[in-house]
TrEMBL record:
Protein name, UniProt field: PqqD family protein
Pfam families for this protein: PqqD
Source taxon at top rank: Bacteria
Length: 89
C-alpha cells in the first residue's frame, strides 16, 4: 500500500493537517488532523510502498518502545489512514 500522492501534510497553527485537494479551503469539512507520531510516519512513508511491518520499523527507529507496542501502534495507524481514505493499493 502507499499514501495517496495527491495529499500533502501541512503544518498550520501548530497542527499537522491534510486537506482533500479537490475541496480546497472553501470546504473544511474533510480535514485530517494528525498527531506528531502520525505526521512523522506520514513523512517517512512518502512515495514508498509499505506494510504494517515497515511502519513498525519506522516507529522502532524513532521511539523507545517494544516491538509489540510498535506493531500494535502501526496496525492502528494504518487502519486509521485506510479508514480516512488516505491510502492507495
Amino acid at each position: 500500500m502507499k499514501l495517496r500522492k495527491d495529499l500533502r501534510l501541512r503544518h498550520l497553527g501548530g497542527e499537522h493537517v491534510i486537506v482533500e485537494p479537490a475541496l480546497g479551503m472553501e470546504d473544511l469539512s474533510n480535514i485530517h488532523t494528525l498527531n506528531d507520531t502520525a505526521a512523522y510516519v506520514w513523512e517517512a512513508l512518502q512515495d514508498k510502498e509499505f506494510t504494517i511491518a515497515s511502519v513498525t520499523e519506522v516507529l522502532l527507529d524513532r521511539y523507545d518502545v517494544t516491538e509489540a507496542i510498535a506493531a500494535s501502534d502501526a496496525a492502528v495507524l494504518v487502519r486509521d489512514f485506510e479508514k480516512r481514505g488516505l491510502l492507495t493499493s
